[in-house]
From TrEMBL:
Pathway: Carbohydrate degradation; pentose phosphate pathway; D-glyceraldehyde 3-phosphate and beta-D-fructose 6-phosphate from D-ribose 5-phosphate and D-xylulose 5-phosphate (non-oxidative stage): step 2/3. The gene is tal. Its EC number is 2.2.1.2. GO terms for cellular component: cytoplasm. PANTHER family: TRANSALDOLASE (PTHR10683:SF31). This is Transaldolase. InterPro entries: Aldolase_TIM, TAL/FSA, Transaldolase_2, Transaldolase_AS. Keywords: Cytoplasm, Pentose shunt, Schiff base, Transferase.
Length: 361
């Protein structure tokens, strides 16, 4: 039996794990995934940290020891320690992939999603605090986040742009990344060590669209992949523009599309749908462990690559529009909802930390 994880890696997909916890680090489970399951990076978000810290006693001593700090300071201490240790664990991967992979992401406080200045300030602070070259600072692709992306890139900070749902917003993300690189070139600063990924969310789009389709519709479970295929076409087109080629000649690295939210929400779908149907060169797929294991157990990969699906994807999106579904409105709402969910997770995390700190604060 072949290995689908190995196969898709050879096809150009960087396999990342969408999870991190102190337990993973201390038990060696993350190290094992690197060694045996082609995992070359990790993504985190407020929901992942809320779950990790809220459900484990491995953080308790550090919380109690630092109870005199503010809740935000304690959370920053806990999360940056985990991310720094994960960065160290991936250092060999980072070197072996010429700094493209071996990356670990940490997100700015989601409450800053509509605040450009606060996002920039915290992005700079987290970069300095963790102090690892294979770090990625996660910035939401809100309208307010776009200038923060440009500014952080211009400061030499590698960025993971998150919560992208629409192709139109993705184009703006690509432009924001290039603008930061251009600013560095104009200042005669190097750009060859700056890396970025653009996290395009998948499953939530199908959940929203399918809720508007008849239960027996043969269009269910097709919109998200079609939308992602169009995003990949945008990526290819952008990488072939004269302005990007000029940056590439100066050492610029591609901002790879990263497929996020790749665990299926509908139990009637193939659990590997958002992985095996989104294989393409120069992409990343970050998976929860259940999805990773499911893909691992499928055997060899034999699906068509994304670039062959362009015509079909355009047809699918046209049919969705003809069904009266406004995909632009859906993706706008998903961005608002995505920010709101991460804010809620952050507040849950604060409650967990406060409960442990108790009367010590």
């Amino acid at each position: 039996m072949g290995s689908a994880l190995s196969d898709i890696s050879k096809a150009g997909v960087a396999v990342w794990l969408d999870d991190l916890s102190r337990e993973r680090l201390q038990s060696g489970s993350l190290k094992k995934l690197i060694e045996t399951d082609s995992v070359v990076g990790v993504t985190t978000n407020p929901s992942i940290f809320a779950s990790a810290i809220g459900k484990s006693d491995l953080y308790q001593a550090d919380i109690v020891k630092n109870a005199q700090l503010t809740t935000e300071e304690i959370i920053t201490l806990l999360t940056t320690d985990d991310v720094r240790n994960a960065c160290d664990l991936f250092l060999e991967v980072y070197e072996n992939t010429k700094h493209k992979d071996g990356r670990v992401s940490i997100e700015v406080d989601p409450r800053f999603a509509r605040d450009t200045k606060a996002t920039i300030e915290q992005g700079l602070a987290l970069w300095k605090m963790i102090d690892r070259p294979n770090l990625l600072i996660k910035v939401p692709a809100t309208v307010e986040g776009l200038p923060a992306i440009t500014e952080l890139i211009s400061k030499g900070i590698s960025v993971n742009v998150t919560l992208i749902f629409s192709v139109a917003r993705y184009k703006q993300v690509l432009e924001a990344y290039a603008a930061g690189l251009k600013r560095r070139v104009e200042n005669q600063e190097g750009i060859d060590e700056i890396f970025s990924v653009a996290s395009f969310f998948i499953s939530r789009i199908d959940s929203a669209v399918d809720a508007l389709l008849p239960k027996d519709s043969n269009m269910r479970g097709q919109t998200a992949i079609a939308n992602a295929v169009m995003a990949y076409e945008t990526f290819l087109n952008f990488s072939n523009t004269p302005s990007w080629k000029d940056l590439a000649n100066k050492g610029a690295n591609l901002q790879r599309p990263l497929w996020a939210s790749t665990g299926v929400k509908d139990p009637s779908f193939d659990p590997n749908l958002y992985v095996l149907d989104l294989v393409a060169p120069n992409t990343v797929n970050t998976m929860p462990e259940a999805t990773l294991n499911s893909v691992k157990n499928t055997g060899a990969f034999n699906h068509a690559l994304v670039p062959t699906k362009l015509a079909l994807s355009k047809s699918i999106l046209a049919k969705i529009a003809l069904a009266g579904i406004d995909l632009d409105k859906i993706t706008d709402n998903l961005e608002v909802d995505g920010v709101s969910k991460f804010e809620a997770s952050w507040l849950d995390l604060m409650k967990s930390v406060n409960a442990i700190a108790g009367g010590l604060k």
